[in-house]
Amino acid sequence: MQFDRVDQVGTIDLQFVPAGLSKQCRSLIESYHRVHGYATLPDVLWKSGLGPFIESHQELRQLLKAASTSRSAKKANEGFVQIATAILSFEIVASSFAGWAGAYPEAGRIARTLLQPLATHQQMPLMAFYLYPPTHSPVAVATLVPPLHSDDDAA
After folding, report:
1. What is the distance in angstroms between the CA of the first residue and the CA of the last residue of the chain?
2. What is the DSSP string of 78-98?
3. Which of 11-25, 88-102, 108-122, 128-142 has the lowest mean pLDDT?
4. Residue 135: what are its φ and ψ, rounded to 5°?
5. d(CA 12, CA 88)
6. Rounded mean pLDDT of 107-121?
7. pTM, two decimal places
């Protein structure tokens, strides 16, 4: 996947993230919100300054619209979890946390390209929130490791 211009970033297919990483991120996000409540999830996204980033990407924008206008709390929560899972996955592979970019170099490059607009804000806000708060044990962080073999292609 090649990007010649910065304005193409909003049209990147967001399915480039390794499926195993997405699954692990989703599990971490869901476990956090099962304890602290899903009602906090939209606040986590907005207070992290991710609104403009979400709005700039068609897939994330569509998920946001569906989540924010749903009359079903379950459907709304699912949409916000999908958004947070995607962004946390981008942050992890872009930062090479636990060696993900080494295992999936193309995904790392795409994620860094995607996250460039966030450079003026906190670099990895969802990683800071979910992986480094004092309320999480090192066990939660240790579960986010790439597989030994990188034969698990992007989702």
Report:
1. 15
2. HHHHHHHHHHHHHHHHHHTGG
3. 128-142
4. -80, -10
5. 16
6. 81
7. 0.80
